[in-house]
Amino acid sequence: MTENIGVLGKKPSQRTGVERVVNAPLPTVYGKFQAVGYLDHDRGDEQVALVYGDIGTDQVLTRLHSECLTGDAFGSQHCECGDQLASALRAVAAEGAGVVVYLRGHEGRGIGLLAKLRAMALQAEGLDTVEANLALGLPVDARDYGVAAGILQDLGVESVRLMSNNPRKRDALQRHGIQVTEQVPLLIPPCESNITYLRTKRERLDHNLPHLDAVAHWS
After folding, report:
1. I need a labelling partner for 138 at 20 to 30 A (CA). Which of 10, 59, 77, 98 fits?
2. 8 Å CB contact between 3 and 23
3. Average pLDDT of the residues of the chain
4. pLDDT at res. 212
5. Can you give the pLDDT at residue 7?
6. % of the chain residues with pLDDT over 70
7. DSSP string for 141-192
8. How far is CA 85 from CA 43, 131, 144, 181, in A?
């Protein structure tokens, strides 16, 4: 059977980047959002942006939230991800407008769910999050924010007030053409189960977490 080819005998080019697929109302406990669904043609991931109100184009209150099944769905106290997601959604609703981009494929800073659980098992034996990933032969942080920038650009966003404690996330967005006019802290009170994880974020991954000074007495 002859293969279907395009003009001048070339195969049709494969799509790249993000494509908006659907926009649906999503009432939540935080308020009424619009769930805008995207397909990432580069990685095959399905992505979603939760949009609240009339966001405009400039200085849009924005959170880029990396998928975390254990924290977001199960309420894990190993990290602060679930609380950060809830706080971001509340902040956007209180602001009256904003975006939370929920980034699938970012589980465990991009290493995947099972690898993250293996890393957590090593952390239970005394390694920190960085050491555990390296012990497994995995990158410390494999996340890419190009898809997030593409989603924001599709929504017409040119600049953001970014809810994040991670300067690398800010720098990545700016490299992809989204201006960050302000980095808004998203500080969650620590607990004894996540204090080591949070200290590692601050000391080894450059996260801005000044509130940890108040619990310096915790071992």
Report:
1. 77
2. no
3. 91
4. 84
5. 41
6. 92
7. -----HHHHHHHHHTT--EEEEE-S-HHHHHHHHHTT-EEEEEE-------T
8. 23, 26, 19, 21
Among the listed residues 143, 168, 199, 204, the single catalytic one is 143
191 marked among binding-site residues: no
Alpha-carbon gap, residue 171 to 77, rounded angstroms: 28
Told to judge if 141 belongs to the known catalytic residues of this protein, a careful annotator would answer: yes
Q: Residue 136 contacts by C-beta under 8 Å, 6 or more apart in sequence? A: 111, 115, 118, 119, 122
Structure tokens at 82: 């679930």
pTM for this model (two decimals): 0.89
Is 68 annotated in some ligand binding site?
yes
The answer to whether the annotation marks 79 as part of a ligand binding site is yes
16 known member of a binding site: no
Average of pLDDT values for 173-202? 92
What is the pLDDT, as a whole number, of residue 216? 67
Cβ partners under 8 Å of residue 15, min gap 6: 41
Torsion of CA 212, 195, 61, 66, to 10 degrees: 150
| Tally of CB atoms within 10 A around 168 | 14
- CA–CA–CA angle 28, 34, 39 (5° rounding): 115
14 is in an annotated binding site: no
Asked if residues 34 and 25 have their Cβ atoms less than 8 Å apart, the reply is yes
Residue 43 among the catalytic residues: no
The three-point CA angle 36-165-34 to 5° equals: 15
Give the distance between the most distant pair of CA atoms in the chain.
73
Selecting among 83, 128, 141, 199, the annotated active-site residue is 141
